Amino acid sequence: MNILVCISNVPDTTTKVKFADNNSRLDVSGIQWVINPWDELSLTRALELKEDASSGVQKVSVAHVGPVTSEPTIRKALAIGADDAYRVNTVGSDAYQVAAQLTEVVKKGSFDVILCGIEFCDYNGSNVGGMLAEFLDYPSVSGISELKISDGSILITREIDGGKEMLLVPAPFVGVVQKGIAKEPRIAAMRGIMQARTKPIHLVEPVAVEPLTDIQSFELPAPRAACKFIDPDHPEQLIELLQNEAKII
Amino acid sequence: MSVIVYIEHWDNKFKKLSFELITYSVKLADMLGTEAIALSIGNVPEQELQKLGKYGIKRILSVDNESITKFDSQVYSRVISEIAAGESAKAIVLANNNAGKSLAPRISVRLQAAIASGVNQLPESVSPFVVNKRVFSGSALARIHLTSEITVITLSQNSFDLVENPAEPVIESANVSLEQLSSKIEIKDIQKQTGKLLLQDAEVVVSGGRGMKTPDNWAPLVELAELLNGATACSRPVSDEGWRPHEEHTGQTGKIISPNLYIAAGISGATQHLAGISSSKYIVAINTDKDAPIFDAAQYGIVGDASKVLPKLVEAVKVMKSS
Ligand SMILES: Cc1cc2nc3c(=O)[nH]c(=O)nc-3n(C[C@H](O)[C@H](O)[C@H](O)COP(=O)(O)OP(=O)(O)OC[C@H]3O[C@@H](n4cnc5c(N)ncnc54)[C@H](O)[C@@H]3O)c2cc1C
Ligand SMILES: Nc1ncnc2c1ncn2[C@@H]1O[C@H](COP(=O)(O)O)[C@@H](O)[C@H]1O
Hints:
heterodimer, A: alpha/beta, Rossmann fold, 9-stranded mixed sheet, two-stranded antiparallel ribbon, 6 helices, 15 strands, 31% strand, B: alpha/beta, 2 domains, 7-stranded parallel sheet, 9 helices, 16 strands, binds adenosine monophosphate
């Protein structure tokens, strides 16, 4: 069984975003790019499964849609432990265009489980996984908080409103993961970093697809009104304000 | 032309989110000069479907097919896409919750429809179709042009006020082709908490961070939430420590919520925490450090020790309720 983890490159979560060219695009100067934290966790889980002989997982690959400048992110995934990588040589423009490119990667290999993350921390879509599944006509499940594979059976836990569901899914399938999939992301060790240099990154030529969305401009939200401070010895004044000024309780 | 709105049900019942979706879709249909049609999948009783009429929907399609026995995004997205195509839908509206997030991208590919996910307002214009939405974990807004003929919108919960607009809806049962309906997924087990107010449904949320010091200090926080008919939440370190259950963790890696009131006690206000709560209508912060970043996001603040302030708030709410 082979696992493909789709990885995206996102600004570090503490980045203060700024915009350039009349607010038409992200100002990338000074941004620290990282693997989307969920993708890092998916990769961690995929590697844990591979190390467990009873899972039958033989290979863990990563896929990325992006220009050559995002190779450091791919090398990092290889250093953490992925066996090989695929890079589609184009700039990702929206979820639809990215999913269409990833579809080509999946068709090139033989993957049983394909993992994507939930809510990419830039445009907050969490759409790529479901789109990829539909392009491939594979079943998909979102909100996966656990993934177990043993003797060819794939058992997942999916978060639902106020509870969870344990599901048996067929291969191939696409999973969109969230919190819980792995505890802590794995960090690349020196040995991994050395090995990553010689692991293959397969270059995939992009297919022609038009994105369906176009970001016209960005804007920083209006600052909230200054905080009104209440005397800590008289917290009852807060309740009175919430009731009579804000009128929300 | 039409606007199709998919109305999920919970054990054959609707909740406030369902009515928010109807209100939004009726207004969106007005903007497009067309009509909204609600689509329900499953065995929902007629008197429950009628409740949707209160918010202005005039036509409801109900797909109650015995082959559909469980939620499977592959099957459901086919049903919704087929009906949307049959009704020449210009827009398809879903909730930005677990179900909606798994359906929207599949529908998008089937119908070549652009998605705007997690929106909290009507489009700025429908021709061209331009929406405003929060991006970069809530720290910026983007104006996005959806260039396709058909659009898919997922609406954030509790972001759109209900408007009553009573109508007498016509309920029709709709058919879909059978070959689309077989699911490849098998449900082994379901674990559900019943009777508890879900964090994402709560209009008031009282949340605690590491500044609460020990799990033993949670009693007044829980009591305050109960008195305000709300739910409890926490920051990530608190759930990581096992002080509170994981479902309560809000933020970028936890739940993203937008209650009317979010009370943060002993929470510093890290960007990753704010990413989950910054669209709350009102934020109240209780923190010993007057420079804590949470105060920049809050409308009301108390600089003080949460373990002393919370019990006093509990008393004040009791007084309010008894008067
Ligand atoms: C990739 C990534 C994702 C993350 N995702 C999330 C997320 O989803 N959600 C999340 O919450 N965090 C997340 N974090 C962690 C986040 O960065 C912060 O570390 C975390 O939010 C801090 O939690 P806290 O405010 O409870 O604790 P602290 O930062 O330790 O703050 C405690 C606060 O309590 C105050 N305090 C102390 N004593 C008292 C008292 N007696 N009364 C009142 N106040 C008191 C202090 O002044 C301080 O402001 C993430 C981090 C990373 C790197
Ligand atoms: N450029 C990309 N290359 C590979 N995978 C991507 C890319 N962008 C997004 N993804 C995958 O899609 C997930 C997020 O989807 P979304 O929020 O729709 O962008 C990420 O966690 C990745 O698994």
